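Follow-up to my post from last week.
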Amino acid sequence: MASVLVASNRGPLSYALAADGTLSARRGGGGLVSGLSAALAEQPDALWVCAALSDGDREAVRRGVFEPGVRMLALDPEVYDDAYNGIANSVLWFLHHHLWDVPREPVFDAEFRRRWESYRAYNRSFAEALAEQAAEGAEVLVQDYHLALVPGQLRELRPDLRIAHFTHTPWASPDYLGMLPDDIREELLWGMLGADELGFHTWRWASAFIGGAGIDSAEGVAQGFSPSGDPWRGVHHRREGGPKRSTRVRVHPLGVDADELRSLAHRPEVDERLAALRAEVGDRRTIVRVDRTELSKNVLRGLLAYRELLRERPEWHDRVVHLASAYPSRQDLAVYRAYTASVAELAEEINAEFGTENWRPVLLSVKDDFTRSLAAYRMADVALINPVRDGMNLVAKEIPVVSEAGCALVLSTRAGAYEELRGDALTVSPYDVSETARALHRALTMPPGERAERTKRLAATATALPPQRWFLDQLDALRG
Ligand code: F6P
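User reply:
Got it. Predicted complex:
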């Protein structure tokens, strides 16, 4: 039985199945996975429950092969597809990022209801696995919008547990949330309110949750400070004559682990890529961006802003290169495939309009290549982070930590990171292409001393709450 449990859709490792039938485990990259793994390693009897995603994962479950401290759930592939692609990524992601193209979307019909049932069943599988594995009074930390119903379902199964849920995305504004059918919205909110503690990256998203919960569920909202002085807000609620309960809402702004990131960025393979990129870029300035090919990241308007910069300020011709990395994401969904294709198309249009024999204005890489991204981070003069809405955006925190000459940060007012970084960033509305183009010019012309000073402060803020500390703070809050 485990005394601390984490639940997330994507887990800390995945299995590869070789042609000869052997299975090998590979740990996932990224600061969050390594921070959480390190924090869990310090807890006695910790367990990470996650979904089996690859064929290798499902085979590992079938054979009963597990890494210590990890339990994978192999769900019916159709149920999983409906829950992950059909609801989590097509409905909840679009809801929380305000991405619907409203004249046509959303459509809540019989097909949606069928998928919602799968989403409920998928959450239920997690709740049951957690209930089965948790020791009396254990702490359970549930991650993200994939598992929003788990806290309520788990509380029904195991009222003795301490349950936290952390949302890594934004939370929809009350108005936008109100687009969901009433019963679904209530189920979603009551699912979340099954937790003792709810965490968000910023007060902007936490307040949106409290506002939305207030529509249906709240009997009152309270606020206070923990003994360490951190503020919390709370929602009192009572469901259908049940006992009165409270859920505390807190903000834990995830940061990056400076030592880990710097050591990753200085591995020999990154040095090699850096040398190759430097040879290609020459002595031109660089504007760097790294995203999943995700609609909320606003890559297209970022490219339009770069094009406007080149149109309005010809002095930058042949003096700047836009290094863009786009990791293909959720390619099972047509809307993501189309978005990825439009990004590549627009980059090519810009190259065709301005490029010369010696200068490619946009160097776009459409692949999951963290080595290239780290090399680009190191040579970034400007970082462009312009999402239309984003839970946090860790790239905005990573680039200042790694950039060698100091980089000027052009940052959307709607990124979660804006709350902490705005003082030293050049902030822009993500919809205002002209403002973004002007900010790029300002960033490119920022005096080196000012750039270095700002970068130093940005890096200090970015590393204030590294993943391991972020996790332990939540555990403390849950225990407190
Ligand atoms: O932003 C929310 C989030 O869950 C991130 O934590 C993660 O980077 C991303 O979405 C993962 O998306 P997916 O698992 O669909 O690739």
